Amino acid sequence: MTGDRRFLLLGGIVFFLMGVASLLVGETFNTRYSRQTFVDRSEEPVKFWFLVIFYLLCGLVLFGLYFTRISN
């Protein structure tokens, strides 16, 4: 069971860093139909911000799950 907690923390770190890196660079990954493309902030701002918020929220949810499993 301890391995599960570590994967939650690792996943949270990866998602959160992807969101922060996307904010700094101005591009983010768009994996649609098994093609990896980039979404630029200036060309498609709605999709860019949706993906960045999704990455940050996934990271925060995984952090929360990690910390709730520690307290139990």
Mind explaining what this structure looks like?
The protein is of the alpha+beta class and about 70 residues long. It has helices spanning about 1-25, 45-70, and strands at about 25-30, 35-40. It is built from two helices and two strands, in the order αββα. Strands 1-2 form a two-stranded antiparallel sheet. α1 (about 1-25) packs antiparallel against α2. The longest helix is centred in the C-terminal third of the chain and has 27 residues, at about 45-70. The mean pLDDT is about 85.
Features:
72 residues, alpha+beta, two-stranded antiparallel sheet, 2 helices, 2 strands, 71% helix, 17% strand, elongated
Give the overall form. elongated
Output the strand order for the largest sheet.
1-2
Helix-strand category: alpha+beta
Domain tally: 1
Helix content: over 70%
The SSE order reads HEEH
Report the biggest beta sheet as strand number plus sense, adding barrel if it closes. Answer: 2 strands, antiparallel
**Which consecutive residue ranges, at least 5 long each, have pLDDT under 50?**
none
Total DSSP helices: 2
Radius of gyration: 14 Å
- Percentage beta strand: 15-25%
